[in-house]
Amino acid sequence: MSVSIDVSRIGTEDYRFSPSPLAELASAIHLLVEPAHHPAQQGWVAAVAASTEPHLLERLIDADFLWRTSRADMFLPAHPGTELADELDSVDALDDELWVSAALLTSSCGTLPLHRELGSPLVDARAREVARERALARGPRQLAFVDFVLSDPPRARAMMRQLLEDCDSAFFGELWRRLRPALAADARVKHDLLATAGLPRMLEVLSPAVTTDKAATRIVVDKLQDASTTAGEAGITFLPSVLGHPHLLVVHAPKWSPVIQYPVTAGDTSASTTAIDVIEQRLHALDNPIRLRLARSLIRGPHTTADLAEAWHLSAPEVSRHLAILRKAGFITSSRRGRYVVYTFDAIVAARLGQDMIEALLR
User: Which pLDDT score, from 0 to 100, does residue 267 have?
Assistant: First the structure.
């Protein structure tokens, strides 16, 4: 499954790389309302929760569907501003129908269907019903907020801006001043890499979960959904994020320019990205009692095919078939010692499997 973006009509100058205070603020809020997704940030979450007015954190929960399991597209700007106020002004410039749709229904940064055929909940009865059903599944507070948005959009929008400004004052402003230099530097690196090495190489460095087709006319993002969009005259925007790992967010909804928010891991190799199909392959490789027996032997030390066949009362061809599956999945490596080929189990790959799976599901 993937989200694909047609980039055949745009040139190098139509790719934007820039930090966004609004996008990073939304990532920070997501951390606070869904800390289980980000164990490495538990210290920051605890510090903010301890120093922030409880009422402010409660207000975030009322509208948690904007930033808990998905991210409203308006929080990932295609034209990032220098300051948070600039980006909030751009959000204020959206008309009520588009703002309400983005807030309640058409976020593309989640796993629920986009309902592309529906209009704005302000004018489309079915869209309004879907928005209320989703909120009801989350709880009465969320339903009350949705009904408030539907009944009084101008007041709801003013309240949302005030909430974001309060978060900026309470915990984000100082954090943003620390993060911005690193994000700007990463954006420059990606921009220069695109200009000098081309799109496939830039995406390879950006994330292993983002690739191109053979003709380099379509960007393909490994996601738990199937969708597509086109980068038109407005181009495509890449937003670096320190707080976003492991999430890789893609804006692909109608009426929105494509945006990719990617995690900046500052050289942390433990935060590598593994494609979903690789994880499926590794789970399948271990879903067999014979291969598990072979793995138990190999993790204790190198063995030849003959060693393993004798130890487990198997034929050499049968052992070879199972070893080939484990090797293709990345669990074992082979080396030659004289006239013998010995196999070794990679314990690090096995240890990473659980974390890789969680990160892929959260991506």
Answer: 43
Other Cβ atoms closer than 10 A to 70: 18
pLDDT at 288: 92
CA distance 231 to 78: 11
Q: Which residue, 266, 251, 264, 243, is CA-closest to 26? A: 243
Kindly report which listed range (45-59, 258-272, 277-291, 322-336) carries the lowest average pLDDT score. Answer: 258-272
Average pLDDT over every residue of 132-137: 84
Quote the tokens at residue 281: 């392959």
Q: For residue 112, which of 104, 100, 120 has the smallest C-alpha distance?
A: 104
Peptide bond into 246 cis (omega under 30): yes
| Residue 270 pLDDT | 41
> Are the C-beta atoms of residues 287 and 298 closer than 8 Å to each other?
no
Question: How do residues 239-264 score in pLDDT, each as one tens digit?
Answer: 999 988 878 899 888 888 999 999 98
Give Cβ neighbours of residue 138 (< 8 Å, ≥ 6 apart). 64, 65
Q: What is the pTM of this model?
A: 0.76
Arithmetic mean of pLDDT over the chain: 87
**Local confidence band at 63 (pLDDT 50, 70, 90 cut-offs):** confident
Contact by Cβ (8 Å): 205, 194: no
Strands 218-222 and 210-212: antiparallel
Residue 113 buriedness (CB in 10 A; 0-12 / 13-18 / 19+): exposed
Take residue 24 and report the two structure tokens written for it.
């990073």
Q: Reduced to 3 states, what is the DSSP secondary structure of residue 240?
A: strand
Phi, psi of 218 (to 5 degrees): -145, 125
Question: What CA–CA distance (Å, rounded) separates 13 from 264?
Answer: 23
Say if CB 335 and CB 295 are below 8 A apart.
no
In angstroms, the Cα distances linking 215 to 199, 219, 251, 299 are 11, 10, 23, 41
- Range 207-210 contact pairs with CB under 8 angstroms and sequence separation of 24 or more: 207/248, 207/262, 207/263, 207/273, 208/272, 208/273, 208/274, 208/275, 209/248, 209/273, 209/275, 209/363, 210/248, 210/260, 210/262
Q: How many CB atoms are located within 10 Å of the residue 115 CB?
A: 16
Rg of the chain over all Cα atoms, to the nearest angstrom: 24
